[in-house]
Amino acid sequence: MALDHIVHLNKDFYPNSGGGPTHIASLIVSMGNSNHIVVTDDTTGLVRKEDFTDNSKIIRFPNKISKNYSSNIRILQYLVDLFHEVRCVNEKIRYLKSGDYEILHVHGLGLYPCLKTLNKYFLFDIYNTILSFSRIDKAKVLTLHNLMITNKVVKKIYDNYFKQFKFIICVDESIYEYVRA
Known about the structure:
This protein is of the alpha/beta class. It is built from 6 helices and 7 strands. The protein has helices at residues 19-30, 74-98, 113-121, 126-130, 152-164, 173-180, and strands at residues 5-9, 35-42, 49-53, 56-62, 103-107, 139-144, 167-170. Strands 3-4-2-1-5-6-7 form a 7-stranded mixed β-sheet.
């Protein structure tokens, strides 16, 4: 039995590069009887919506990130980038909440650097409040390709993700052991 619609969420989906996009493309091809939508950030000015294959399309949500902070305007640029991150996340969550699909498949934990930094300096867990998949009333699957826990803030973000997904696919035994613990 084929599912009608599957949404794949990947923070940085550029179809022709990387293991994550290759994995998603393989799933789309192997599940050719289903329709797929890839939801991703756009930091490069690519087309907002485009067909990817016969049974899939890509929807990009703008997320303008500054590459270099000038020392004179660092805090101002951080605030602008934070605004863009929050807007991008909110637009994606709104889209995912209202979409007509059966399964949300989240590929990896694409971290948002400005939100992550904000979490570091406040007692309130801003990151996990804004990026909450528990608000999406659909079947959800999380696939973890790597485990990049570099500090307590990132560990808290990962641990919160694990609580929001009933189904987690770990592609590595060390990830499985961490999630299981």
